[in-house]
Design a protein that fits this description.
This protein is α+β, with helices and mostly antiparallel strands. The longest helix has 21 residues.
């Protein structure tokens, strides 16, 4: 969410006698040879020439006089002209005035030349600012501070600190404002030790209770991750202003204590301090993190009461809160009610829908949220607002979730045209998108074209190769990464072990596992063990798989137990499979899919009493049938299917085509796998139920009927594929020479020429 900007430090600077403020009104000078010039805010200048007749000049005319003449003017009259140069951000005009200052000898005036340092700094010409500073006839704290401020504002905090150290060596003493600038530089560079020294200095001279000093200390410690010290600095402030409260509230959000931040916000209100737009934005951000809709709605009411409802950052924060809490209609009302929308607003709306994908109760709702995000991105492009790297990153992530390759390719083309494809964040998102959409070749191409690579981009590409069954390429890329000097992390080793698992490379996997622990001192986590267990299950080495479970320092998760259930069923270890299924149910006691796995295990073993017991439990828990859905997107329209679905307009044609496909693939070796089900839970009789019209079969048939012959088919399914459907799709890919990708609840299956990227692990399900 919106982050709190750097707080401006206020401090009283005591000027030396020669730094008195000169008047800017028209004054008659008694000095010989000095013309009287007054530059008003109205941009007119009254000049008295030799005939002593006044005439009105604008800013440009005044500059022309300075360029052409060398008449000396009172030094005070340079200041308003230089101020106008700042407001116009005109370095060239400032240089013209500077030239006149040198011609007339006014560069000896410390007030004017110090102000000139400030002008060049604000016009972003720090080289000239430093040159003027070096030639100052005399330096005091104001001139030192002006140069430091310039370096901080021009993103060169390290040079600001160097100037500060030079100032101390020269014997000058910093003011509160000077310290504020150095605190700012220290925060930017995360120099906590220097910050502590400055803190000690402020304590020594008893100014740590000063509001500006306390605000800066709070900000410094917060940015360096020391929330406790930030609180201490905040509490010591005698006169807390809204900036003090905002800094402390923001510190809580930045350091993972959102609850404390909301407590401080409430305390601030109770003490009668009125929040500003930055305070409200920070408090709303905390509500987002905690998904505290109630508190957020109260703050929304306060926003209206204080008159900030039209403030764009505040409005964006409210909209994002509603999106994250699932109140899509309220968020949409705010979005549609904005007349002038900034890119931040568009980004918040797109990112909010990305959050909805993760928070959705079911996959179909998640899919619809993703489609809505794509529509918002389309509207953004039509509005004339140019996307930035955050827009591209968010929309590519959404394309990944939707397996929306066509839309992802369009975004890729747009990012090339706009130049953002060279950004490391966008390029990494591209690699990830192509990987998750099943296009490993394009992912590899995007990776190769990256000008620089981070650990995340290396890991994403290694994971892509592993998921597509390209073990050797994954392991070779891992070695290339190490040669490049990039240190792998936990996630990288998950991808490496996954690659070994797909290929059944036991010795290599164990070698990498040991190297991870000894060479890189990375403690194994659940996902590392899950990869090894998956590998042993694929190979039928169930003793070693269960042995690893016992060696783990933590309880296995759902993925591990479901993997063991599938392996035990495949290899005929019924007792172990039942045990694994029961453990799975302890983790997911209300999950229908887990009960179905246990039920199927008992049916396969013909343990009818256990079947009856499980069905009774399911009835008592009010667990209905397993809700199965699959959907496919064609020409930006989503088509969803349920088993034996007859609600779709083409249902009759689709089901006939499924029957035709089954007949055709039987000739290639396909053997349907039927499911055992009881007709009556009190009878020990069974019948075979057809798997012919499972949802993914209908979606694939619909795709084959409604797309060009060479077009790939991409389907999303809300639960795991069954064994029969996995086998069926393998043969269909061989029959039709089509690439068929199915993302189920466990993994991406990419079928091509009769083979699946999962290494036939789907056959275990």
């Amino acid at each position: 969410m919106a982050s709190l900007p750097s707080v401006a430090v206020s401090g009283n600077i005591k000027l030396d006698q020669e730094f008195r403020k000169h008047p800017t009104s028209s004054i008659s000078s008694e000095k010989s040879g000095i013309a009287n010039v007054s530059y008003q805010k109205s941009q007119t200048i009254t000049s008295l020439d030799g005939s002593s007749e006044p005439r009105s000049l604008d800013f440009r005319e005044a500059l022309e006089i300075f360029r052409e003449g060398s008449n000396k003017v009172d030094s005070s009259y340079y200041v308003p002209l230089l101020q106008e140069c700042i407001e116009r951000n005109s370095a060239s005009n400032a240089q013209a005035v500077h030239g006149h200052i040198i011609k007339t000898g006014s560069h000896q005036d410390l007030f004017v030349t110090t102000f000139l340092v400030n002008v060049y700094a604000k016009c972003r010409i720090m080289e000239d600012a430093h040159k003027v500073f070096d030639k100052l006839p005399k330096r005091n704290v104001v001139s030192w501070t002006a140069l430091m401020t310039g370096y901080v504002h021009n993103s060169r905090p390290e040079l600001a600190i160097r100037v500060f150290l030079e100032m101390l060596e020269a014997g000058a003493y910093p003011t509160n404002y000077t310290l504020g600038i150095v605190f700012n530089a220290s925060s930017t560079l995360y120099l906590i030790e220097l910050g502590k020294q400055l803190h000690a200095y402020s304590i020594k001279y008893r100014i740590d209770f000063d509001t500006s000093i306390g605000n800066n200390l709070c900000s410094l410690y917060s940015k360096c991750g020391n929330l406790e010290s930030a609180f201490k600095a905040f509490k010591k402030i005698k006169e807390k202003n809204v900036i003090s409260w905002t800094s402390s509230i923001s510190a809580c959000g930045d350091n993972g204590d959102s609850s404390k931040g909301l407590e401080l916000f409430t305390e601030m209100l109770s003490e009668g301090t009125e929040p500003n737009d930055y305070t409200l934005t920070s408090a709303l951000s905390l509500c987002c993190t905690m998904q505290s809709l109630g508190a957020g709605m109260q703050i929304h009411s306060l926003v209206i009461k204080l008159g900030y409802e039209l403030n764009l950052p505040v409005r964006n924060a409210i909209m994002y809160l509603y999106l994250k809490c699932g109140m899509i209609n309220e968020a949409r009302k705010l979005f549609n009610g904005m007349g002038d929308m900034s890119l931040i607003t568009w980004n918040a709306m797109i990112a909010g829908h990305a959050q909805l994908i993760d928070l959705a109760e079911d996959d179909l709702s998640a899919y619809r949220s993703g489609i809505e995000a794509l529509n918002i991105f389309l509207k953004l492009n039509r509005s004339g607002v140019k996307p930035d790297l955050f827009t591209y990153s968010s929309i590519l992530t959404i394309c990944s979730s939707l397996v929306a390759l066509d839309q992802g390719e369009q975004v890729h083309a747009q990012s090339i045209k706009s130049g953002f494809v060279s950004d490391i964040v966008v390029a990494t998102a591209l690699v990830n998108m192509y990987n998750k959409c099943g296009s490993i070749e394009k992912a590899s191409k995007a990776f190769i074209e990256m000008s620089t690579r981070t650990l995340i981009s290396w890991t994403s590409m290694i994971a892509g190769f592993a998921q597509h069954g390209r073990t050797q390429q994954a392991l070779q890329l891992f070695e290339d990464m190490r040669i490049a000097g990039v240190r792998p992390n936990q996630v990288t080793f998950v991808s490496v072990l996954s690659a070994c698992s797909y290929a059944g490379m036991v010795n290599e996997a164990l070698g990498y596992f040991e190297s991870m622990k000894k060479d890189y001192r990375i403690k194994p986590v659940m996902d590392h063990y899950a990869c090894l267990i998956d590998m042993y299950v694929r190979l039928g080495r169930l003793d070693e798989a269960f042995g690893l479970v016992k060696k783990m320092d933590f309880e296995p998760n759902e993925f591990i137990w479901s993997t063991l259930v599938a392996g035990c069923r495949r290899h005929g270890h019924i007792d172990r499979g039942v045990y694994a299924a029961e453990q799975l149910l302890k983790l997911k006691p209300k999950d229908t899919e887990a009960y179905v796995m246990l039920l199927d295990m008992y049916i396969s073993a013909e343990r009818w009493k256990d079947v009856s017991r499980v069905r009774k439990i399911m009835k008592e828990e009010k667990l209905g049938e397993l809700e199965e859905w699959s959907w496919i997107s064609i020409k930006d329209k989503v088509h969803s299917f349920k088993p034996n679905d007859k609600s779709h307009p083409q249902s009759e044609v689709v089901q006939k085509y499924v029957d035709s496909l089954i007949d055709q693939v039987k000739s290639l070796g396909y053997k349907p796998v039927e499911s055992l089900e009881l007709t009556d839970e009190d009878e020990e009789t069974t019948l075979f139920s057809s798997t012919s019209f499972h949802s993914e079969k209908l979606a694939i048939a619909f795709g084959l009927l409604n797309t060009p012959n060479a077009a790939p088919i991409r389907v999303i399914k809300n639960i795991s594929m069954c064994r029969d459907c996995h086998s069926f799709v393998k043969f269909v890919s061989l029959l039709t020479s089509r690439e068929i990708s199915i993302r189920d609840s466990k993994r991406l299956h990419k079928f091509l020429n009769g083979k699946c990227s999962c290494g036939d692990f789907g056959a275990l399900l």
